[in-house]
Amino acid sequence: MGRIYLLSGSSITFLLKAGTHRILVNEDGEDPVFGRQVGIIPLQEPSVISTKGLHWDVSGWETRIGGKLSTSNLVRPETKYVEVETTKDVLFTLALRQVDGEEEG
Q1: pTM of the entire structure?
Q2: Hey, where are the domains in the chain?
Q3: Over the range 4-32, which residues count as b (16 or more CB within 10 Å of their CB) and which as e?
Q4: Counting C-beta atoms within 10 Å of the first and last residue's C-beta, which end of the chain has fewer, N or C?
Q5: Are 89 and 67 a contacting pair, CB within 8 Å?
Q6: 5-96 topology per CATH
Q7: Which residue, 43, 37, 49, is CA-closest to 84?
Q8: For 21-57, how does the pLDDT look when each residue is reduced to its tens digit (9 = 90+)?
């Protein structure tokens, strides 16, 4: 089954199906591609999520549209992988690193 990635000048967004995911955010010896900002957005229904590798990790935390949302979290500087466990499908959005001379937008 294919995946869809939504890419803008400032972020990449993709679907995380219900289950456990390990997302590579920093590769040893490589220039960083990603920034620190992360969001995890539920789709059609509430989801219970747990995370590892973020500034504000959560465990068994319910997220829902119109309720609590994780839209402004940060990847910890030492984190190589962000781990997300979700009971329902969610969107995962990750900032792209700004290149010197680029405007934020």
Answers
A1: 0.88
A2: 5-96
A3: eeeeeebbeeeebeeeebebebbeeeeee
A4: N
A5: no
A6: Rossmann fold (3.40.50)
A7: 49
A8: 999 999 887 788 899 999 999 998 999 999 999 999 9
